[in-house]
Amino acid sequence: MKQTILVRQPRDLTVAWAQKVVDKHHSHVVVDKVDIVAVNVGTTTRVCVAVEHDGSDTLPKRWFVKLPSLAWRARMITALPRLLHTEVRFYNEVARFIPLSLPVCLAAQSQLGYGSTLVLADVAQFDDIPSAASDMLTPAQAALVVGQLACSHARFWDNKHLGSSYRWLGGPVRRLEDSLGTALAVPLMKRGLHLAGARIPAALHAPALHYARHRRAAMQFLANAPKTLIHHDCHPGNLFWNKSQSRVGFLDWQLVRIGDGVSDVAYFLATALSPEMRRVHEVGLLSRYAQTLADNGVAGVDVDYLLQRYRAHLVYALEAMTVTLAVGGMMNLDCNLELIRRTAAAVHDLDAFSVLPV
Fold first, then answer.
1. Based on C-alpha coordinates, what's the Rg of the chain?
2. What does the pLDDT read at residue 1?
């Protein structure tokens, strides 16, 4: 029988539980102690634990454990589309094929009706530095991220077997998530616009509500492009860096799916750069994205076409941050408001709503 590592609460992260995780990798290593270092509750409950064991340094001693959220609003939003379950499947089935730096996965398990548990090595264990969601990246950092996204997108670009090999990436769970998003779009957008105040220009309120009322058609338009594997939540808080800032890694794959590659670029540039920096560099970064795709075997991607798709996908970045604010408890409030300010500026600058045929 498969040994379970599933737990529901931080207090369940005991020595006996940690021993089960260690046994998956080193059957003769003994766990002596487990200390909870920090607990952070958002879309998931994220627990940092220190694990003392008698193994070598190759077995991490600081772990990052993800459990279903203890915040009831966040749990309601994430439970039906099974977002943590999706991330568990990503690490179990797909992660080894991704040409990106990812955290070391120690254990990942999910069970319908009980929940999911994901155990990663804390990136700080290897002297990597996680970003905060509101970090403002430099053009050099942005260029590195865009290049890495392009390499990953190129690996799966227009792969006809992707959907059949990994049906869960675009199957019933994804459709349920989209249906839930559409059903709640108008009330959440109204609440989010109210809470955001002046951070979202008044000129965007009517188009944002119009988009929310016609969200299903907008999503169909945004999906009408060559498909690849996308992260779909690529903001600074889901990145980590080595000390020299010469290597970037990607965290939090709960929203991974099949979609339009440039959507990751739009979401990233809208959230990660100051509006002033984005205005100067976004076209050049899109050109870098197109060139890197070409260098990795994706032919015929036109920069003007990418720019139009980029503009359209900015709308989702604003929606995601506004809905996060409306639900509450899913992100640090100050970070959330700053990302709303940045994404609203991007949508306003590029008149993004006008690109959508709704």
1. 20
2. 42
Which positions ≥6 away from 341 have C-beta within 8 Å?
Answer: 199, 275
For the chain, give every domain's residue range.
10-125, 129-355
Taking alpha carbons only, the member of 135, 133, 136 closest to residue 331 is 133
Mean pLDDT per 10-residue section of the chain, whose length is 358 residues = 85 97 94 97 94 93 95 80 92 96 97 91 94 96 98 93 82 77 93 98 98 96 95 98 95 95 98 98 97 96 95 98 94 97 98 95
CB 110 within 8 A of CB 88: yes
SS3 breakdown of the chain: % helix, strand, coil, rounded to 5?
55, 15, 30
DSSP states along 53-119: ESS-TTS-SEEEEEEE-SSHHHHHHHHTTTHHHHHHHIIIIIGGG--SB-PPEEEEEEETTTEEEEE
β-partners of residue 239 are 250
Residue 300 tokens read as 């015929």
Three-class DSSP category at 31: strand
CATH number of 10-125: 3.30.200
Q: For 187-298, list the strands marked E by DSSP.
A: 227-230, 239-241, 248-250, 257-260
Which pLDDT belongs to residue 2?
A: 63
What's the residue count for the chain?
A: 358
**What's the CA gap between 67 and 85, in Å, rounded?**
10
How would you list the strands of the sheet with 105-111, edge to edge? 31-41, 44-53, 62-68, 115-121, 105-111
Quote the CA–CA distance of 212 and 208 in Å, as a whole number.
6
User: 129-355: which CATH topology?
Assistant: Aminoglycoside 3'-phosphotransferase; Chain: A, domain 2 (3.90.1200)
Instruction: For the sheet with 248-250, list strands across it.
Output: 129-130, 239-241, 248-250
pTM score above 0.90: yes
